[in-house]
Each structure stands twice: as C-alpha cells, then as structure tokens.
Amino acid sequence: MADILLEDLVKTYGDHEAIHRISCHIKPGEFMVIVGPSGCGKSTLLRMIAGLETVTRGNIRINGQCVNRIEPKDRDIAMVFQNYALYPHMTVFNNMAYGLKLRKMTKPEIQTRVRECADLLQIGHLLDRKPKELSGGQRQRVAMGRAIIRKPSVFLFDEPLSNLDAKLRQSMRVELKGLHTRLKTTMVYVTHDQVEAMTLADRIMVLNEGQIEQVGTPDVLYERPETIFTAQFIGSPEMNFIKARIVDQTLVFDIKDQGISFPAPDIELSNTENLICGIRPEHITLHGALDSGQAGIKGRIQLIERLGSDTLYYIDLSHDRRLTIKTHLNLPLQIHDEVYAGFSPDRFHLFDPASGKRLPLSEKIT
Amino acid sequence: MLKPVHFKSSILPYLLVFPQIIITLVFFIWPASQALYQSFLVEDAFGLSSEFVWLDNFTALFSDPDYLNSFLRTFFFSMATASLSMGFSLMLAVKTDRVIRFATPYRALLIWPYAVAPVVAGTLWMFMFDPTLGLAAWWLKTAGISWNHRMNGNQAMLLIIFAASWKQISYNFLFFIAGLQAIPKSLIEAAAIDGAGRTRQFWSIVFPLLSPTTFFLLVVNVVYTFFDTFGIVHAVTKGGPAGATKILVYKVYNDGFIGLDLGGSAAQSVILMIIVIALTIIQFKYIERRVEY
Ligand SMILES: Nc1ncnc2c1ncn2[C@@H]1O[C@H](COP(=O)(O)OP(=O)(O)OP(=O)(O)O)[C@@H](O)[C@H]1O
Ligand SMILES: [Mg+2]
Questions:
Q1: CATH of the domain at B213
Q2: Which chain B residues are closer than 8 Å to A81 by Cβ?
Q3: Helices (H), chain A
Q4: What is the ipTM of this complex?
C-alpha cells in the first residue's frame, strides 16, 4: 500500500499544455478513478505516475518519495494497458513470470506465484497458450495477472475494460472491485465511462482539458457537482439544464409562455438574471395532467426508451428546449402525448454559466 | 490488405502485365533455359562443335576441389556479409527508432547506398583501400597495419565483405525500421515497468518480435551475396589474389568467359539458380507460416 501525491503537476508537449497544475492526494489503498472525455489528459497523467512520460513541472511522490527521476521499474508499480500489451511471443505463463524473472526470483518461487495468481483469476488452464490463442476477456485477465503477480504497491489501469463487450465489462468490473477489496492495494484507474467510474471508485477525479474539475466520492459528485462540466459528465442520462433567473426571491425558469417559479432565498448575487439550473432526469416527475395547485411545465413526448426497470421520456418543450425524464413508474403514456413535468426544488443544482461553478444558493432553496 | 480489382475488358489486364512478361521471358526465362541446356553440353576447344554429355559437367564440378573450395569461400563470404550488414543496420535502426522516430529526411539519406551500382560501390571501396593511393590504407599504415589486399587473400576477402555489406546496409535498415515501428510501443513500456532495462527489452522483446523481418532479410542478403556481388568482386579483386575471393558467382564468369569452359560454367550457374530457388521457397513457406503473431 502506498499513497501518491501529485503536486502542481504540469505536462507540456511542445507548446501544448496537456496537464495544467494538477494537485491531488491519493490515499493508501484507495481506488481512485480518473474520468473525463477523450483527450483530456487522463492517459498522460497516468503515464506520468508510471514514469512513462517525463514530468515537465511539479512533483509526483509515491510513499513520500519524489519519483520524478526514478525509472518505471523502480517505482514499485504495475500497469494494465488498454490494448493489454501482452508479449505476443511468450506463453501466458511466461508473460506473467517475466517480471519475476527479472527480479531474480527462483524457479520454484515463480511457479508457485504464477499458480496462485492464475487460480485467483481463473486462468490456470491457459498457462501454456500464446496471447493470440486467447479471447479478449482472457487476455484481459492475463494482463491483470501480469500486474498483480508482482505484488506492487500501486496498480495503474488505462481503460482496461474498454475493449470488452458490455456484458463482460460488467462482470470484469465486479471482479476488479472484488480484487481491490481483497488486495487492498492503491489503484489508479483511468476511464471515460462514468458508469465504471461510479461503480468502482472510492473517489473520482473528473478531468477536463488537463485540469481537475472536481475530486470526490461518487455520492458527492452525484449529489453536489461543483461545476457544470461535472454535473453533465456524471450521471446517465445526462442532467437537464434550464436557463433561469431570480426575480423577487423566486427562481423563474426561462421558458417562454410557461410561468413556473420556485421560492428562492434572499442571497446577494451579482448576477441574478442569467443562471443555469441543473436537474437530473430521475428527479423530474411526469404527469398526464396536473392536479390543482401543482406547478409544471407543459411539453410533448418526443421519444420513449424503455430500459426494462426504467423508462426514459424525451420531452419537447416549446422553442427547441428538451427535457429528459427517467422514471421507474409504468405510465400509460405514448409518443406525442401532452404531458407535464413536475419539479422538486430541493433537487436543483444552480450554476453560474460564466464561471461554470456551482452557486452556494442551491442548497438553500426549500 | 490487397484489394481485388475487376477489369471490364478482358484484354486490359493482359496488356498491363505484358511488358513484365516480355522482360521476364527475355532476360530471365530464356537465358536460364539456355544455361540449363548448355550445362548438359561439352564444347570442343575451338567452340565448333558440342556434345551432349548429360550430367558429366555436374559430376566434374563436384569432384573439383577448386569448386568445393569456392563453395566454402562463398558460404563464409555470404554469412559474414549478411551478419555484418544486418547487425550494423539493426544497430542503426534501433538508434534511429529511438531518437528520431519520424525524421524522414535522415532516413532518406540512409537509403542512398542502395541506389549505388555494385561496380561503383566496389570501385569506391577499392580506391579507399588501394595500397598505394587509398586513404583508408594509409590510415591503417599509420596505425601499424600493413594493408595490401592485392597480396593478402584474407584482406581481400575482408574488403569485399565490407563493400558488399555497405551496399546492403540501407536496404536492411529500411526493413528493420519498418519492423521496429510495427512493434507496439506499449510492449516496450510494459517490459520497462516489468523491470527490464534497455538491453533486456531489446533481447527479450524487440529482437524476438523482429524475427520475421530478420529471417526475411537473411534470405534476401544470402541471395544477394550469392547472386549480386559479381560487380563488387570484379571491381575490387577480380577473384584474386590466387583465387582467395573467387566466390561462386565470380567463378561462373571466370570459368565461362576467361576459361571458356561454357558447359562447366553453365552447370555452375544452374547450381546457383537451384540454391536461390530453394532459398526463395523456404522464404515463402516460412513467411506464410509466421506472418503474424
Ligand atoms: N506524445 C504526445 N505528443 C504530443 N501530444 C500528446 C502526446 N500524447 C498526448 N498528447 C496530447 O495530450 C492530450 C491528452 O492526451 P491523453 O492521451 O492523455 O488523452 P486521454 O484523456 O487519455 O484521451 P483518451 O480517452 O482518448 O485516451 C491530447 O490533446 C493529446 O493530443
Ligand atoms: Mg487515453
């Protein structure tokens, strides 16, 4: 077990800055998931921790020791690559034993270690095969085996499940989580899949264009996204964003011809005209008709997606606005029906569109 | 991937390959069949009549110690040239691959020797090592080594090995570079994390993965040394001194055009041809079998 400290980390390629001043402390035994859209610098950051990319500025400390100038092999880490990077000319056994041989372990020791590890990952029957004779999922396991066999103090994963089909990905996810509970080793895991991030992570680091948007537990990221970017990135389907303003202590949705307002507390805001209100699809209710006294926004069902347990309704409001609503209720509604969306203000997230930051106000809405 | 192309007219494809077929027929099939035919004949000293002698030319060759000697010499020359040239190219390729992965101008420079005709390459080396005029010979002299490849058979052999290797370096280099770049970088990185240093990475990962390229080049180089080195030998040593550099392909010329033993010379070239065909077949078999991992 080791902790990793990133201090003001910067990486530039030529004059392109891929990582901007990242600071973060990854605790011993933590499962940290780095998530973000393609090209945001996830792999670069991971490869810097691995020692495969040089550090332009800042420090990386593993267990307190600055590793900026330490070779990958001396960092006591193991990495699983997206394409697995199994040695194609070696058998599964030799793939796993390679690192042990280089560490001058004796033959019988290697034998037992490989056996142990192969049993753990259920690849004992594959030891004599070459990588090309394995299925994608089996390769994945071997790659995992090659990493855990050395018992390093940090595991690094770069989108290890992205080449697997949905079903296999799901079961590998569960296994990976199980592995972490058993080994209790510090893991840093890169993915662009927010479901993977939410299910695996102790904490998630959301990365956007080389900068940290937010670091927090999955719950915090879901309940209290600090930026519009995080709010949009975490949660599936994506959060709804509605333009809003505050007038006379009420929050008014900026939807033409549809008056709906919620009480807002009296807090000084420099800008009350131009706000963004984020609402998760699962926090909107759907009604065929409104009861008296109930407030709602009128719209038309554009598309219905039935996912089994849940149903997604895509609602067309006037003037090109759309809402996504997720519900587990089985409503007798059809496409093109006129419906009303109901809101509960305590689930609102308010953002300032200029800075993209969360407004403190949003907790105070009752 | 080769894509099949469909032609509307049925003549066009034949027209397209026609020039190549003519060239093959005129410059390869016809002389080869002539050589085969000649190898069964014995001509009298004046070239007036010839007699069909079946395999006599061949049996004579294999009982001729001079020929067997030449065979051994060729084998040595071939192996030495192939290993020297390939070893050096591989070294260059590894360095280049590491330092300037995409610098094409540099790579373009390295291909130049390949465009040089064998005779010119040979002449170049001959002048450099000329015992009286050559710069390299003079350096060697100041270093206390007396160099005279006109007198010293070993030195003559060394010189043609150098010349032949030099010319082949760029070709080998290009293939090695291509081979190296086909190896996924992540494999090297995985090995680095697994604890392998540079040297270890090379021998346990890169070199084995490069083996298809290496094998391909080995065959190409051996074929080259057996077949294409006539110009070099002719320009540098003319087979001398005392036959020290008389490799098979030079002996074919020497016996045929200097010694005027057409039948024997033809038989030798037939044997050379068989060797090359055999090598090519091995090549194809092997390549087919392990074209990918
Ligand atoms: N070797 C390199 N040279 C120059 N630019 C690079 C290099 N490697 C990465 N970059 C740039 O750095 C940025 C971050 O790349 P990185 O590979 O870390 O993205 P990523 O988040 O892993 O994306 P993906 O999800 O697609 O893998 C990109 O803009 C990329 O173009
Ligand atoms: Mg990546």
A1: 1.10.3720.10
A2: 186, 189-190
A3: 42-50, 92-102, 107-121, 136-148, 166-183, 194-200, 218-223, 228-233
A4: 0.82
